[in-house]
Write a structure and sequence with these properties.
With 208 residues, the protein is α/β, with parallel strands linked by helices. Helices cover 37% and strands 18% of the residues. The model has no long low-confidence stretch (mean pLDDT 97). Bound molecules: the ligand Cc1ncc(COP(=O)(O)OP(=O)(O)O)c(N)n1, 4-methyl-5-hydroxyethylthiazole phosphate (TZP) and magnesium ion. 4-methyl-5-hydroxyethylthiazole phosphate binds next to helix 8.
């Protein structure tokens, strides 16, 4: 099994399927410089989800990019993905760690809460995610977070991921506030040229 180092910073592209061209657009995002890819599919189609996650894992291996599975520890284990992303309804870090092992990447949603981030870091999360920072086309009712939270969380010693309504135009304010990763769905995958869209985010960070 190929394991891929988790990068220090960059574009964290999150897929927006289900869509028939998933592999093609994921490939374009990676060609454009995405440094982490998350498979996010909120359907219950277990068979398709497994097949797509396997295909994305193979694609990510070619690019030496870690694949993170949203919500689903079992799917992450079954596909040999680099890790899992957990929100408040998705189980805790210890349970995921017990299944996925010490070297897996476990990310945790902390919404607008420093306290959630402190607890996640203490529980062994590999990164903490905050947001939404801007109105999100994907999650219009997401709680809103302030860039001050990114600054405050520098003390936690884990990478900070920003999510929610991020575009190439508003992203620099989050990079300035300390976001190590920009997690983006629509401003990458809803764009007509996915590769070019990814490049605009990738260029906001220096090479790793
Ligand atoms: C990197 C990253 N950050 C936040 C989320 C949101 O997770 P969650 O709150 O569990 O919501 P869903 O994405 O599951 O709808 C994420 N997926 N990735
Ligand atoms: C999953 C999630 N959690 C908070 S906002 C969001 C959606 C981000 O998508 P977009 O980049 O399209 O705003
Ligand atoms: Mg979730």
């Amino acid at each position: 099994m190929i394991t891929t180092r988790f990068p220090n910073h960059g574009l964290y592209a999150i897929t927006d399927g289900p869509r028939t061209d998933l592999l093609d657009v994921a490939s374009q995002a990676l060609a454009g410089g995405a440094r982490v890819l998350q498979y996010r599919d909120k359907t219950t189609d277990t068979t398709r989800r497994h097949a797509e996650a396997v295909a994305l894992k193979q694609l990510c291996d070619v690019h030496a990019v870690p694949l993170i599975i949203n919500d689903d520890v079992v799917l992450a284990a079954a596909t040999g993905a680099a890790g899992v992303h957990l929100g408040r309804d998705d189980g805790d870090v210890a349970a995921a760690r017990a299944v996925l092992g010490d070297h897996s990447i476990i990310g945790v949603s902390c919404y607008d809460s420093f306290e959630l981030a402190r607890a996640a870091a203490a529980a062994g999360a590999d990164y903490v995610a905050f947001g939404a920072f801007f109105p999100s086309p994907t999650k219009p009712h997401a709680v809103r977070a302030s860039p001050a939270l990114l600054r405050q969380s520098a003390t936690l010693g884990v990478p900070r991921v920003a999510i929610g309504g991020i575009t190439p135009d508003n992203a620099p304010s989050l990079v300035d506030a300390g976001a190590d990763f920009l997690a983006v769905i629509s401003a990458v995958f809803a764009m007509p040229d996915v590769c070019a869209a990814a490049q605009r985010f990738a260029h906001l960070y220096p090479p790793d």
